[in-house]
Write a structure and sequence with these properties.
- The chain has three helices and no strands.
- The relative contact order is 0.19.
- α1 packs across α2 and α1 packs across α3.
- The protein has 78 residues and is mainly alpha-helical.
């Protein structure tokens, strides 16, 4: 099922929201060998947060959308 992006939420993220975003960020960083203090990590974190605020709450969908946005798809299966 394709998840539709809703309007951007102006509500501050709570600890559960941040935990979800952190898990997705950590998985992407580990999967693609992205250093946490790199420019790429900053861009990726910004995309994770922005998509989450737009309503993408499923971690798998969030990860897929960040991969697509950053061009991180691999040619072979992980």
């Amino acid at each position: 099922m394709v998840q539709t992006i809703k309007t951007r939420s102006q509500v501050p993220l709570d600890s559960r929201d941040l935990e979800t975003c952190q898990r997705v960020f950590d998985k992407l960083s580990a999967d693609y060998g992205i250093e946490r203090d790199s420019d790429e990590a900053e861009r990726m974190a910004s995309i994770v947060i922005e998509l989450y605020r737009q309503g993408v709450r499923n971690p798998n969908h969030l990860q897929s959308m960040v991969e697509a946005a950053r061009g991180l798809f691999e040619t072979s299966e992980r």
